[in-house]
């Protein structure tokens, strides 16, 4: 009789686990979405930093050239 109770508990746990399927899937999708957004943000920050550095170098070069012509 106790074996049947254990088996019933296992079935009950499995049903509860399966009933959380859509919630679990949405949670995993949200985590994946957050990870992708973080990667995009990192790329944008890196690109923005490189672009700002290039503009700074360009401005410094232009300033240096203008001093050379004086």
TrEMBL record:
Question: What name does this protein carry?
Answer: Uncharacterized protein
What is the species of this protein?
A: Acinetobacter parvus NIPH 1103
